[in-house]
Amino acid sequence: MVKPQTWLAGVAGLLLALSAAAGELVVLVDDSTEMPQANIVNGQLQDGLHRDIGLELAAHLQLDVRFRILPRKRLIAALEQGQGDVVCLALPQWMPGPTLRWSRPFLDNQDLLLSSRQAAPRSKLADVAGQPVGTVLGFAYPEMLQQLGSGFVRDDAHGMYDNLRKLAAGRVQHVVTNRLYLDYQLAHGLRLPPLQPALVISQYRNRCALSPRSLITRSELDRALAAMQQDGVFQRMLRHYR
Protein backbone atom coordinates (compact mmCIF):
# COMPACT_ATOMS: atom_id res chain seq x y z
CA MET A 1 0.00 0.00 0.00
CA VAL A 2 1.29 3.48 -0.88
CA LYS A 3 1.68 5.74 2.13
CA PRO A 4 -0.54 8.88 1.96
CA GLN A 5 2.42 11.25 2.34
CA THR A 6 4.28 9.48 -0.48
CA TRP A 7 1.26 9.72 -2.75
CA LEU A 8 0.76 13.41 -1.91
CA ALA A 9 4.43 14.19 -2.59
CA GLY A 10 4.15 12.45 -5.95
CA VAL A 11 1.04 14.43 -6.85
CA ALA A 12 2.74 17.68 -5.81
CA GLY A 13 5.76 16.85 -7.96
CA LEU A 14 3.52 16.08 -10.93
CA LEU A 15 1.66 19.37 -10.50
CA LEU A 16 4.94 21.31 -10.40
CA ALA A 17 6.18 19.53 -13.51
CA LEU A 18 2.93 20.40 -15.27
CA SER A 19 3.26 24.03 -14.13
CA ALA A 20 6.81 24.26 -15.48
CA ALA A 21 5.79 22.56 -18.70
CA ALA A 22 2.98 25.10 -19.01
CA GLY A 23 5.51 27.92 -18.63
CA GLU A 24 5.08 28.86 -14.97
CA LEU A 25 7.62 29.73 -12.27
CA VAL A 26 6.27 29.00 -8.77
CA VAL A 27 7.94 31.17 -6.13
CA LEU A 28 7.48 30.28 -2.44
CA VAL A 29 7.52 33.04 0.19
CA ASP A 30 7.62 32.78 3.99
CA ASP A 31 4.38 34.16 5.47
CA SER A 32 6.22 36.03 8.26
CA THR A 33 8.30 38.11 5.82
CA GLU A 34 7.95 41.90 6.05
CA MET A 35 8.94 44.89 3.94
CA PRO A 36 11.13 45.56 2.11
CA GLN A 37 11.34 41.82 1.49
CA ALA A 38 7.57 41.27 1.20
CA ASN A 39 4.22 42.93 1.77
CA ILE A 40 1.66 40.15 2.25
CA VAL A 41 -2.01 41.13 2.43
CA ASN A 42 -4.72 38.51 2.97
CA GLY A 43 -2.34 35.76 1.91
CA GLN A 44 -1.34 37.54 -1.31
CA LEU A 45 2.09 38.97 -2.13
CA GLN A 46 1.54 42.62 -3.04
CA ASP A 47 5.00 44.18 -3.05
CA GLY A 48 8.60 43.80 -1.98
CA LEU A 49 11.88 42.25 -3.05
CA HIS A 50 10.48 38.70 -3.23
CA ARG A 51 7.86 39.84 -5.72
CA ASP A 52 10.29 41.96 -7.74
CA ILE A 53 12.88 39.18 -7.95
CA GLY A 54 10.23 36.61 -8.89
CA LEU A 55 8.85 38.81 -11.66
CA GLU A 56 12.32 39.52 -13.06
CA LEU A 57 13.37 35.87 -12.89
CA ALA A 58 10.22 34.79 -14.69
CA ALA A 59 10.81 37.38 -17.41
CA HIS A 60 14.40 36.23 -17.95
CA LEU A 61 13.30 32.57 -17.98
CA GLN A 62 10.37 33.43 -20.28
CA LEU A 63 7.84 32.00 -17.84
CA ASP A 64 4.73 33.25 -16.10
CA VAL A 65 5.05 33.59 -12.33
CA ARG A 66 2.89 32.45 -9.43
CA PHE A 67 3.60 33.20 -5.76
CA ARG A 68 2.67 30.82 -2.95
CA ILE A 69 2.71 32.01 0.67
CA LEU A 70 3.63 29.33 3.22
CA PRO A 71 4.74 29.14 6.87
CA ARG A 72 8.52 29.15 7.13
CA LYS A 73 8.61 25.68 8.69
CA ARG A 74 6.98 24.24 5.53
CA LEU A 75 9.29 25.82 2.95
CA ILE A 76 11.98 23.12 2.84
CA ALA A 77 9.48 20.26 2.57
CA ALA A 78 7.46 22.17 -0.03
CA LEU A 79 10.55 22.59 -2.22
CA GLU A 80 11.68 19.00 -1.75
CA GLN A 81 8.20 17.70 -2.62
CA GLY A 82 7.90 19.91 -5.69
CA GLN A 83 5.24 22.33 -4.46
CA GLY A 84 7.28 25.27 -5.76
CA ASP A 85 10.32 26.02 -7.89
CA VAL A 86 12.31 28.49 -5.80
CA VAL A 87 12.70 30.28 -2.49
CA CYS A 88 14.88 33.38 -2.83
CA LEU A 89 16.66 35.66 -0.35
CA ALA A 90 17.84 32.60 1.58
CA LEU A 91 21.02 30.74 2.53
CA PRO A 92 21.83 27.01 2.84
CA GLN A 93 22.46 27.33 6.59
CA TRP A 94 18.94 28.73 7.02
CA MET A 95 17.31 26.01 4.91
CA PRO A 96 19.40 22.84 5.29
CA GLY A 97 17.54 20.63 2.83
CA PRO A 98 19.95 17.97 1.52
CA THR A 99 18.40 17.82 -1.95
CA LEU A 100 17.99 21.55 -2.56
CA ARG A 101 20.07 23.14 -5.30
CA TRP A 102 21.50 26.59 -4.58
CA SER A 103 21.97 29.48 -6.96
CA ARG A 104 24.87 31.86 -7.20
CA PRO A 105 24.96 34.63 -4.52
CA PHE A 106 23.44 37.91 -5.69
CA LEU A 107 22.22 40.32 -2.96
CA ASP A 108 24.24 41.67 -0.01
CA ASN A 109 22.84 41.93 3.50
CA GLN A 110 23.94 41.85 7.14
CA ASP A 111 22.46 40.39 10.30
CA LEU A 112 22.67 42.82 13.21
CA LEU A 113 22.30 42.67 16.97
CA LEU A 114 20.52 45.74 18.33
CA SER A 115 20.85 46.46 22.04
CA SER A 116 19.20 49.06 24.24
CA ARG A 117 21.41 51.55 26.02
CA GLN A 118 19.66 50.36 29.18
CA ALA A 119 21.43 47.01 28.76
CA ALA A 120 24.96 46.37 29.97
CA PRO A 121 27.53 47.55 27.38
CA ARG A 122 28.43 44.84 24.90
CA SER A 123 31.10 44.66 22.20
CA LYS A 124 30.77 41.03 21.12
CA LEU A 125 28.09 38.35 20.94
CA ALA A 126 29.44 36.56 24.01
CA ASP A 127 28.42 39.58 26.10
CA VAL A 128 24.71 38.72 25.69
CA ALA A 129 25.01 35.06 26.72
CA GLY A 130 22.15 34.06 28.98
CA GLN A 131 20.08 37.16 28.14
CA PRO A 132 16.82 36.97 26.13
CA VAL A 133 17.30 38.01 22.51
CA GLY A 134 14.35 38.92 20.29
CA THR A 135 14.18 36.39 17.43
CA VAL A 136 11.63 35.31 14.83
CA LEU A 137 9.77 32.04 15.21
CA GLY A 138 11.12 29.46 12.77
CA PHE A 139 14.20 31.49 11.81
CA ALA A 140 17.65 29.90 12.11
CA TYR A 141 20.47 31.86 13.74
CA PRO A 142 23.55 29.68 13.17
CA GLU A 143 26.13 32.32 14.15
CA MET A 144 24.36 33.09 17.41
CA LEU A 145 24.03 29.40 18.23
CA GLN A 146 27.64 28.68 17.30
CA GLN A 147 29.05 31.46 19.47
CA LEU A 148 26.64 31.30 22.41
CA GLY A 149 25.58 27.64 22.49
CA SER A 150 23.19 27.07 25.39
CA GLY A 151 23.67 30.74 26.30
CA PHE A 152 21.60 31.74 23.26
CA VAL A 153 18.21 32.48 24.85
CA ARG A 154 15.58 33.06 22.17
CA ASP A 155 12.52 35.25 22.73
CA ASP A 156 10.48 34.40 19.62
CA ALA A 157 7.95 36.65 17.93
CA HIS A 158 6.01 36.14 14.69
CA GLY A 159 7.94 38.84 12.83
CA MET A 160 10.79 41.32 13.10
CA TYR A 161 8.49 44.29 13.61
CA ASP A 162 7.04 42.64 16.72
CA ASN A 163 10.58 42.29 18.07
CA LEU A 164 11.41 45.94 17.43
CA ARG A 165 8.21 46.93 19.24
CA LYS A 166 9.29 44.77 22.20
CA LEU A 167 12.67 46.51 22.15
CA ALA A 168 11.01 49.94 22.07
CA ALA A 169 8.73 48.97 24.97
CA GLY A 170 11.64 47.65 27.05
CA ARG A 171 10.31 44.07 27.04
CA VAL A 172 13.62 42.83 25.60
CA GLN A 173 16.99 44.54 25.56
CA HIS A 174 18.44 42.79 22.50
CA VAL A 175 17.01 41.82 19.10
CA VAL A 176 18.39 40.33 15.90
CA THR A 177 17.41 42.00 12.64
CA ASN A 178 18.94 42.57 9.21
CA ARG A 179 20.31 45.69 7.57
CA LEU A 180 17.88 45.87 4.64
CA TYR A 181 14.88 45.49 6.94
CA LEU A 182 16.12 47.95 9.56
CA ASP A 183 17.07 50.67 7.06
CA TYR A 184 13.69 50.39 5.33
CA GLN A 185 11.71 50.54 8.57
CA LEU A 186 13.69 53.53 9.89
CA ALA A 187 13.14 55.35 6.59
CA HIS A 188 9.39 54.70 6.90
CA GLY A 189 8.83 56.09 10.37
CA LEU A 190 10.02 53.43 12.81
CA ARG A 191 11.05 55.00 16.12
CA LEU A 192 13.45 53.17 18.41
CA PRO A 193 14.83 54.10 21.84
CA PRO A 194 18.50 55.09 22.20
CA LEU A 195 20.60 52.09 21.19
CA GLN A 196 24.16 50.93 21.52
CA PRO A 197 26.08 50.78 18.21
CA ALA A 198 24.72 47.91 16.11
CA LEU A 199 26.85 44.77 16.25
CA VAL A 200 27.32 42.98 12.91
CA ILE A 201 26.63 39.27 13.45
CA SER A 202 27.29 38.20 9.86
CA GLN A 203 27.64 39.56 6.33
CA TYR A 204 26.34 37.50 3.45
CA ARG A 205 24.99 37.45 -0.09
CA ASN A 206 21.52 35.99 -0.46
CA ARG A 207 20.82 33.12 -2.85
CA CYS A 208 17.84 31.17 -4.20
CA ALA A 209 17.03 27.57 -3.26
CA LEU A 210 15.87 25.53 -6.26
CA SER A 211 13.58 22.53 -5.93
CA PRO A 212 15.12 19.18 -6.95
CA ARG A 213 11.86 18.51 -8.80
CA SER A 214 11.86 21.76 -10.78
CA LEU A 215 12.28 21.53 -14.55
CA ILE A 216 14.36 24.71 -14.31
CA THR A 217 18.06 23.88 -14.13
CA ARG A 218 20.50 25.55 -11.77
CA SER A 219 22.50 26.85 -14.73
CA GLU A 220 19.36 28.49 -16.15
CA LEU A 221 18.64 30.08 -12.79
CA ASP A 222 22.23 31.28 -12.43
CA ARG A 223 22.27 32.75 -15.94
CA ALA A 224 19.08 34.68 -15.20
CA LEU A 225 20.48 36.03 -11.92
CA ALA A 226 23.79 36.94 -13.57
CA ALA A 227 21.97 38.84 -16.31
CA MET A 228 19.90 40.68 -13.71
CA GLN A 229 23.05 41.60 -11.80
CA GLN A 230 24.84 42.78 -14.92
CA ASP A 231 21.84 44.93 -15.88
CA GLY A 232 21.81 46.60 -12.45
CA VAL A 233 18.41 45.15 -11.56
CA PHE A 234 19.22 44.47 -7.91
CA GLN A 235 20.68 47.91 -7.32
CA ARG A 236 17.55 49.50 -8.79
CA MET A 237 15.41 47.35 -6.50
CA LEU A 238 17.39 48.43 -3.44
CA ARG A 239 17.19 52.11 -4.41
CA HIS A 240 13.42 51.75 -4.81
CA TYR A 241 13.03 50.57 -1.21
CA ARG A 242 15.31 53.14 0.43
Protein described:
It comes from Aquitalea palustris. This is ABC transporter substrate-binding protein. The radius of gyration is 19 Å and the shape is globular. The chain folds into 2 domains: 4-107 and 205-240, D-Maltodextrin-Binding Protein, domain 2; 109-203, Periplasmic binding protein-like II (D-Maltodextrin-Binding Protein, domain 2). Helix 2 (49-61) packs across helix 7 (218-230) and helix 2 runs antiparallel to helix 8. The protein has helices at residues 4-21, 49-61, 75-80, 142-148, 160-169, 179-187, 218-230, 233-240, and strands at residues 24-30, 39-41, 44-47, 64-70, 86-90, 101-102, 107-115, 132-136, 153-157, 174-178, 199-210. The strands form 4 sheets. Strands 5, 6, 7, 10 and 11 form a 5-stranded antiparallel β-sheet that branches. The protein has a two-stranded parallel sheet with strand order 1-4. It has 242 residues and is of the alpha+beta class.
How are the SSEs ordered, and which strands pair?
Blueprint: H1 4-21, E1 24-30, E2 39-41, E3 44-47, H2 49-61, E4 64-70, H3 75-80, E5 86-90, E6 101-102, E7 107-115, E8 132-136, H4 142-148, E9 153-157, H5 160-169, E10 174-178, H6 179-187, E11 199-210, H7 218-230, H8 233-240
Parallel strand pairs: 1-4, 8-9
Antiparallel strand pairs: 2-3, 5-11, 6-11, 7-10, 7-11
Helix pairs in contact: 2-7, 2-8
Protein name: ABC transporter substrate-binding protein
